[in-house]
Write a structure and sequence with these properties.
This protein is an alpha+beta fold. It folds into three domains: 4-78, 2-Layer Sandwich (Uridine Diphospho-n-acetylenolpyruvylglucosamine Reductase, domain 2); 83-194, Uridine Diphospho-n-acetylenolpyruvylglucosamine Reductase, domain 3; 212-292, Uridine Diphospho-n-acetylenolpyruvylglucosamine Reductase, domain 1 (Alpha-Beta Complex), CATH 3.90.78. It is built from seven helices and 21 strands. The chain has helices at residues 4-7, 39-52, 102-111, 127-132, 192-209, 229-235, 264-282, and strands at 12-17, 29-34, 56-59, 65-66, 72-78, 87-90, 93-97, 114-115, 136-137, 140-141, 146-153, 158-162, 168-169, 172-173, 178-186, 188-189, 216-219, 242-243, 246-248, 255-258, 291-292. The strands form seven sheets. Strands 6-7-15-11-12 form a five-stranded antiparallel beta sheet. The radius of gyration is 19 Å and the shape is globular. 40% of the residues are buried.
């Protein structure tokens, strides 16, 4: 159990509705919700989890997460504290806290006349989450510009990993059982106006091809070796398909949107329909990119 000294500080909450912290706006409550404000408080949270054998769920912007309607048993570690949103520059390097939004990181870099983050335009996540899933798209991945990553293991040990020592792959990396706390990027010098112009061009392109203004969690399925998931779903005539309040986007087939007070159960049901249909029609097994808690 949480000790009296631990309950005395405001980092701990019980039965927190996670729908308020996810881009789908669905899901139940967290048994325990912790928002550490410093490295030392994060270590305290992880020590508690180890002592009490609590499962750890790391939450950033909640833009790639689907929380079960029954909630989660364990500790949700929310990296939203101010300490984890700091951004510093050292020449061509930018050091960013894991809780920084990608949009703020890119804006700051552009203001400093630093480019090289175009692959992240339009992705509504945080730096930490982007690293863990190696976020990106047609313009590249976050791993392309990383110099180093600092993490805290679930045992409370701080480690700094050079880029060459981290295994990155399509929508994943080898940083298991540790929490990203800080990332250093090596960027390229460029004219500020040019960087902002390139970012705006990519954003407008995504705005036309993705349902950015809806309640969604980005792409639901990973692309396969032979096909893009969106192409398979589109060819299966599933655009607009609904289960309860959840619908396959009519703009981009690999997006599911919360169209009308959807539940997580609705979204899971629609994911099942899509997987089964694509498997039956094309004998392709789609794998979810989305984290399901």
């Amino acid at each position: 159990m949480i000790t009296s000294t631990e309950t005395g500080d405001s980092i701990w909450q019980y039965d927190v509705p996670l729908r308020n912290y996810t881009s789908f706006r669905t899901g139940g409550v967290a048994e325990i919700f912790a928002e550490p404000r410093s490295i030392s408080e994060l270590k305290k949270v992880l020590q508690f989890c180890k002592r009490e054998q609590k499962k750890i769920f790391v939450l950033g912007n909640g833009s790639n997460v689907l929380v079960n309607d029954n909630g989660v048993q364990g500790v949700v570690v929310y990296m939203g504290g101010a300490h984890f949103k700091q951004i510093k520059r050292n020449g061509m390097f930018i050091c960013s806290g894991a809780g920084t939004s990608l949009s703020e990181l890119m804006r700051k870099a552009a203001t400093w006349g630093l480019g090289g983050l175009g692959a992240l335009v339009g992705i509504p996540g945080t730096v930490g989450g982007a690293v863990v899933m190696n976020a990106g798209g047609k313009y590249g991945n976050v791993s392309d510009s990383i110099a180093s990553v600092t993490t805290m293991t679930f045992n409370g040990e701080i480690k700094t990993h050079n880029r060459k020592d981290i295994d990155f792959w399509y929508r994943g990396c080898g940083l298991q059982k540790q929490i990203v706390i800080e990332v250093t990027f090596l960027l390229k010098g460029a004219e500020k106006e040019k960087v902002f112009g390139e970012m705006d061009k990519i954003f407008q392109e995504k705005k036309e091809s993705q349902p950015l203004a809806t309640l969604n969690a980005g792409c639901i399925f990973k692309n396969t070796q032979g096909f893009k998931a969106a192409e398979l779903i589109d060819r299966a005539n599933l655009k607009g398909m609904k289960v309860g309040g959840a619908a396959v986007s009519s703009i981009h087939a690999n997006f599911i949107v919360n169209a009308e007070n959807a539940t997580s159960c609705d979204i899971l049901g629609l994911i099942k329909v899509i997987k089964n249909t694509v498997k039956k029609k094309y004998n392709v097994t789609l794998e979810t990119e989305l984290q399901i808690w």
